Amino acid sequence: MFLASPGALYLLIFFVIPLGLITVYSFATRTSTGRTSLSGWNVESYEAIGDEIILGIIGRSAWLATLTTVLCVAVGYPFAYYIATRPRHVRAVLLVLVMIPFWTNALVRVFAIRFLLGSNGPASALSESLGLGTFRILFTPTAVTIGMVYSFLTFMVLPLYVALERMDWSLTEAARDLYASGAKAFWKVTLPLTRSGIVAGCVLVFVPSFGSYVVPDILGGAKTLLIGSYIARQFRDARNWPLGAALSVLLIVAMLVAVALNQRSGSGAEDGGRPRGRKRRPGQGEAEPVTAVAS
Amino acid sequence: MSGVVEVGLGRRTRRGLAVWAWAVFAFLYVPIVVLVVFSFNASSRVNIWGGFSFQWYGEALRNDVITSAIRVSLIVALVSTVVSVVLGTAVALALDRYRFRGRRALDGTVYLPIVIPDITMAVMLLVFFAEAFKFIDSFGPRFTLGISTVALSHIAFNISFVCVVVRARLDQFDRTLEEAARDLYATGWQTFRRVTLPLIMPGVAAGGLLALTLSLDDVVISAFVSGPGSTTLPVYVFSSIRRGVTPELNAISTLMLTASIALVLGSLALQRRRAGAGRQTQVL
Questions:
Q1: Please, what's the largest Cα pairwise distance for chain A?
Q2: CB-based contact (8 Å) between A122 and chain B?
Q3: Which residues in B lie closer than 8 A to residue A86 (C-beta atoms)?
C-alpha cells in the first residue's frame, strides 16, 4: 500500500534489519582482539549465559523487577482507587497531577532521587541535624528499588485508574446490599473486576524494570549489576558483542512473552467486567487518551 | 455518574485512603521540588542552603559543552518529530482503512519498538550502524556516528508512538463524514484535507507532542548511537551524574523539567480540545 510504504520501509531498515542483525551477532564469535567475527556460527554466547555470574545477574534483575512490580501494585492500587472515586472535577485535577510525573523527563526524576538520597544530599543533611547520622542508602539494592518504584509507579497507576473508572460500581453496591462486608465486597467484586488493569499495570512496570539501565546505573553499586547494565557493558568496555547480543535476544523474547500473556489474559476481561452489550457510560471516553499513552 | 462514587467504605477506610493518596503525591513530587529549590542555591556545596541565586543557571549556559548539547537535542527532537509524525500518521491511516499485503506483519512490527527495552533497541541500532558503515565505507565515503545517526534512531521509535496515538483517534472516527464529503463531489484530496485531517488533527498533534517528549527524554539509545560532538543534553547529564552531583546539574535538570512540564500541559490542553472537537462532531 502506497500510504504505508515510506513508514514501513523506514521500520524495515531501522528496526527489522537491526533486529535481524542482533540475532545474527548472537551466533557470532568474539575474536581475541574483541572484534566480532561473523564467519563460523555457534551457540557459544548462549552457552555462556548458563554461567553462574550471568545467571545471578538475570536472577537479581528478575527479583528486583518483581519486587518493584509488587510494590507498585501495593502503593498504586489504593492511590488509583482514591482518585477514581473522587467527584469528576476533582478527579480531573488529580489526574493531571499524576500525568505530570508520568511525562516528566525520566532521567531528571532519577537524578532527583540520587540528589535527595546522596550522602551529602538534603535528606542526609536533615537526618544529621536531627542527630540520626548520615544516610547510607545510595548504591544499595534498596536505593535501586526506590528509584524503580519512583520511576515506574505512574505506569501502574494509569491502567489501574482506567479500570477503576470504567468499572460498574453498581455491582459493588449490589454486593453491599446483599450484606457483604466492605472488605468482602472489595476482594470478591471490585478487585476481580479490575483485574485487567492490574495485569496491564504489572506488564507496564515489570517490562521496563527488568531491562532498566539508567536507574541501576545511577542509584546502584557493584551489588546491583542488572541485565540492562550488563548488556551495555558488553558493547562498551568488555567488547563482547556476541554475548551482549545473545542477552539482548533473550531479553526481547522474554518481554514479548510477557506482553503476549497480558494480551491473552486481557482479552477475557477487557471490558472491565461490564455485562456485554451494555452501553458505554458517558465520560468513559475521557479515559481513553490515558490508555493510548499508557499502552 | 459524576458525583462521589459511594461504595460503602467505612469512615476510617476512607480517611486512610485519603492519607495514603496524599502521601503518594508527596512521594512523587518532593524529590522534584527539592531538586528545583536547590538549583537556586547560592552555595556551591550541594547540601547547605546559602541563599537564593541564579548563579548556576548562568554557569550552565556559559558552558559550551552544555549549549552545544542543548542545540543537538533540539535539532534531533524537531527533525525526528516532523518526520515521524508524517510517516507514523500515514502508517496509522493505512492500517486503519486499507487491507493490503503485509498489513498484519506491519501491524505487529509497529508495536515492537514500544515494547522492547531501550537498551536492546540501543544495541540493535549500534550494531546496525556499525555494519552499515562497514558496507558504505567499502564504496568510499566515510560515515561515523553523529547527529544524523541519533536523529535516524529517534525517528525509528517515534514512528511507532505516533502511529499508536493517531490510531486511537481513528478508532473514534465517524466515517460517514467522509462519505458525506464524497457524496457532495469532493475529490479524494479535498476530503482528506478538509474533513479527515481536521478531525484527526488532535491525535496527530498529541502524537507529535509525545514524539517531541520522548526524543528530548531519550538517554539510552542516544548514548549508544551518538559520536563525539553529537552528545544530546540527557546523555551529557547522564555521564555527568556518574562523575558526581554538582549545582550546575541541578540547574540543567530544572530546565529539562520545565520543558517536560510545558509539554505535558500543552498535550493536556490538546486533549481538552479533542474532547471539545468530539462534541462538535456529534452536533454535526
A1: 74
A2: yes
A3: 4
Q: Which of B47, B135, B245, B256 to mutate to test the interface with A (most CBs of A within 10 A)?
A: B47
Q: Print pLDDT tens along chain B (284 aa).
A: 444 455 667 788 889 999 999 999 999 999 999 999 988 988 777 667 778 888 889 888 888 999 999 999 999 999 999 999 999 999 999 998 888 888 888 988 998 998 899 999 999 999 999 999 888 888 877 778 889 999 999 999 999 999 999 998 888 888 888 888 888 888 888 888 888 888 888 889 889 998 999 999 999 999 999 988 889 999 999 999 888 888 889 999 999 999 888 888 887 787 776 665 554 443 33
Give me the residue from B103, B117, B156 closest to A14, CB to CB. Answer: B156
> Taking CB atoms and an 8 Å limit, are A292 and B168 in contact across chains?
yes
A chain contacts of residue B160, beta-carbon cutoff 8 Å: 11
CATH number where B60 lies: 1.10.3720.10
Query: Chain B interface, mutation test: which of A93, A105, A148, most B Cβ atoms within 10 Å?
Result: A105
What are the tens digits of pLDDT across the range A120-159? 777 777 777 777 777 778 888 899 999 999 999 999 999 9
Domain enclosing residue B79, as ranges: 54-283
Sequence-distant (≥ 6) Cβ neighbours of residue A78 within 8 angstroms: B16, B17, B20, B21
Question: Is the residue at B164 inside a domain?
Answer: yes
Residue B19 placed within a domain: no
Is B146 part of a structural domain of the chain? yes
The residue extents of the domains of chain A are 55-235+263-294
Q: How far apart are CA B211 and CA A74, in angstroms?
A: 31
Chain A residues in contact with B261 (beta carbon < 8 A): 100, 103-104
* Cell numbers for A225: 549489576
DSSP B224-243: HH--TT---HHHHHHHHHHH
B237/A contact by beta carbon, under 8 A: yes
Looking at this predicted complex, what is its ipTM?
0.86
Q: Is B120 on the interface with A (CB under 8 A)?
A: yes
Any idea what the Cα angle at residue B142 is, between residues B137 and B144, rounded to 5°? Answer: 110
**pLDDT tens digit sequence for A47-71:** 888 888 999 999 999 999 999 999 9
Q: B150, B76 in Cβ contact below 8 A? A: yes
Q: Is residue B233 part of a domain?
A: yes
Q: Do A8 and B91 lie within an 8 Å CB cutoff?
A: yes
- A180 phi-psi bin (left φ>0, alpha ψ -120 to 50, beta other): beta
Tally of domains within chain B? 1
B4 touches chain A (CB under 8 A): yes
Q: Which fold has domain A55-235+263-294?
A: MetI-like fold (1.10.3720)
Query: Among candidates A186, A155, A20, A151, which has minimal Cα distance to A76?
Result: A155
Q: For residues B216-246, b (16+ Cβ closer than 10 Å) or e, as one string? A: bbbbbbbbbbbeeebbbbbbbbbebbeeebb
